[in-house]
Write a structure and sequence with these properties.
By secondary structure, this protein is α+β, with helices and mostly antiparallel strands. It has a single domain (9-157, 177-214), classed as Beta Complex (Beta-clip-like). It is built from four helices and ten strands. The protein has helices spanning 43-48, 130-135, 163-174, 180-214; strands at residues 9-13, 19-23, 32-35, 39-41, 62-64, 70-72, 84-85, 91-95, 102-106, 117-118. A three-stranded antiparallel β-sheet has the order 3-9-8, with no helix packed on it. The protein binds S-adenosylmethionine and zinc ion (ZN). Residues 134-150 form the Post-SET domain. One of its GO terms (molecular function) is methyltransferase activity.
Length: 216
């Protein structure tokens, strides 16, 4: 019997973090595995929300669309919300042309039982400090691991031999039109921003509660 209508994936505990999503059968490269579902909210609504888990305030189920809207995977979300990050992923996210949906696509052939990953490449406003990188620490353990789920600025290649390469990179970064990569990264910008604000709010709340408790 054909298993064409069966899901490509299943959800179970991951050795990396909490729940993870795994290939339920062999998945060919280029397969649209699942969509990132959930309620569409504004960034203001996201900012106003409390962390899903106050003990892990940087945990997030938000996925920002290029329109500025956010998909809240924690509300009516699909299993895609359980996909963990890797710096050497076997999947990528793709926004549809209308900018309303996000597909999880297989980057290569994936064997049944393999955990599915995409690179979150989270973008932050302001300087990417060591502290920030640590707060979004990546535990993927790959040789290519950059140590954080944040997107890091590309390092310039030094030396006259790479002049052409450097000029190319300068041109690209000064272009007014966002490159595909920039656009993709921009999608997750609000996601982190919202979560950071939520963390600050949670901290303020604990401070206020402690202060109240300390009152005679
Ligand atoms: C959308 S959830 C993914 C599902 C998650 N495993 C869970 O059970 O909730 C994203 C969160 O998972 C954690 N996470 C995912 N990939 C990670 C990684 N490579 N290293 C460390 N934590 C990770 C982080 O807390 C992140 O904010
Ligand atoms: Zn990593």
């Amino acid at each position: 019997m054909s298993n064409i209508s069966q899901p490509w994936h299943s959800v179970r505990k991951s050795t990396l973090h909490g729940n993870g999503v795994f290939a339920a059968r062999d998945i060919p490269a280029g397969t649209r595995i699942i969509d990132y579902g959930g309620r569409r909210i504004t960034s203001e609504q996201a900012d106003a929300m409390h962390p899903v888990n106050p003990d892990d305030p940087f945990h997030t189920f938000f996925f920002s669309l290029s329109s500025g809207k956010i998909i809240d995977g924690g509300n009516r979300g699909t299993d895609a919300r359980w996909i963990n990050h890797s710096c050497a992923p076997n999947c990528e996210t793709q926004e549809n042309t209308a900018g309303t949906r996000v597909h999880i696509m297989a980057l290569r052939d994936i064997k049944a039982g393999e955990e599915l990953f995409y690179d979150y490449s989270l973008i932050m406003d302001g300087k990417i400090t060591k502290k920030l990188q640590k707060q979004y620490q990546c535990l993927c353990g790959n040789a290519e691991c950059r140590g954080t789920m944040l997107a890091l600025p590309k390092k310039k290649t030094k030396g006259t031999n790479n002049k052409a390469e450097n000029e190319k990179s300068d041109k690209a970064s000064s272009s007014k039109k966002p490159k595909k990569q920039d656009k993709d990264k921009a999608k997750v910008k609000a996601k982190v921003k919202a979560k950071t604000k939520a963390k600050e709010k949670a901290k303020d709340k604990v401070k206020a509660e402690n202060k109240a408790k300390a009152q005679p």
